[in-house]
């Protein structure tokens, strides 16, 4: 690699999926911007491995190791000048983190930073700002596997950051066990989502927003369904109809919406319930989707460090 460029790599060990970004950045110019060379994503479903004591089971740990081994092979070929690895809610909450973390670090042969909910929210907002061209106040929502981050602020300046104790994998397991979908199950899950955001409602309203942007899997799944069904806008009313269609299906395996990927079907209802709860409680009628997320925020942080 030329001295005028640096190779950077970022790994986001999420509670549902693990992501690896490979990029290079010019060392010249006042505002260096990374060029992403490759993206890798694997459904690890780490949060699916929790038992009642919030210990991660052997199967979840094995899935994580397999993924990190593949990432390690990619890194060996790419030879980054700088690498950053973070883990989010699933490892943050795991009561056996002290035993699991060294095993995962040994496979990757690199330290893993288990980040706080507030730092996770900040990185998500940074990633959304890096990927989005929106101007003015915005509200960013990221529904992960074991936590949900809600951030309000202006481009590059987050003002309210919160990480909520709910995620699509956890909600799916808690409210839609045995893959059964009913109106009561949805109502209970939506109410739980509303209760988690209700105490923070005033904070967000005081800051305000012009745009609502969703990051990560649940939002992309909703957007892909809407696109396949020729819906021009993402609205709370349309989301309510989609939920009713899930209830009518009655079972996860019967969710056959156009645009719905097989890997998202298993946790769709958990994500929809969280999303509907937040939108309803904050009185949001329209929302959009962004490609930016935590991994892009992590990459932006690496760029700032390496080009300083």
Automatic annotation (TrEMBL):
InterPro entries: ATPase_NBD, GppA/Ppx_hydrolase, Ppx_GppA_N. Gene3D superfamilies: 3.30.420.40, Exopolyphosphatase. Domain 2. It comes from the Bacteria. This is Exopolyphosphatase/guanosine-5'-triphosphate, 3'-diphosphate pyrophosphatase. GO terms for molecular function: pyrophosphatase activity. Residues 34-304 form the Ppx/GppA phosphatase N-terminal domain.
């Amino acid at each position: 690699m030329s001295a005028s460029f640096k190779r950077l790599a970022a790994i986001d060990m999420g509670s549902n999926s693990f992501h690896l970004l490979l990029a290079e950045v010019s060392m010249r110019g006042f505002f260096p911007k990374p060029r992403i060379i490759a993206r890798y994503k694997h459904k690890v479903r780490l949060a699916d491995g929790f038992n009642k004591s919030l210990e991660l089971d052997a199967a979840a740990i094995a899935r994580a190791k397999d993924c990190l081994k593949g990432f390690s092979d990619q890194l060996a070929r790419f030879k980054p000048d700088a690498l950053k690895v973070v883990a989010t809610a699933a490892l943050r909450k795991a009561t056996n983190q002290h035993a699991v973390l060294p095993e995962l670090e040994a496979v990757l042969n690199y330290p893993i930073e288990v980040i706080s909910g507030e730092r996770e929210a900040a990185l998500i907002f940074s990633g959304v700002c890096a990927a989005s061209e929106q101007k003015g106040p915005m509200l960013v929502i990221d529904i992960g596997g074991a936590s949900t981050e809600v951030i309000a602020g202006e481009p590059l300046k987050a003002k309210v950051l919160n990480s909520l104790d709910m995620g699509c994998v956890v909600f799916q397991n808690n409210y839609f066990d045995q893959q059964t979908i009913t109106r009561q199950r949805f109502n209970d899950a939506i109410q739980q989502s509303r209760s988690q955001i209700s105490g923070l409602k005033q904070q967000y309203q005081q800051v305000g927003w012009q745009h609502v942007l969703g990051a990560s899997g649940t939002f992309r799944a909703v957007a892909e369904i809407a696109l396949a069904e020729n819906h021009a806008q993402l609205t709370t009313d349309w989301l309510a109809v989609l939920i009713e269609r899930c209830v009518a299906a009655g079972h996860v395996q019967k969710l056959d919406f156009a645009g719905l990927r097989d890997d998202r079907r298993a946790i769709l209802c958990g994500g929809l319930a969280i999303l509907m709860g937040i939108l309803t409680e904050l009185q949001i009628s329209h929302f959009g989707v962004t490609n930016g997320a935590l991994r892009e925020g992590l990459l932006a942080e690496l760029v700032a460090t390496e080009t300083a």
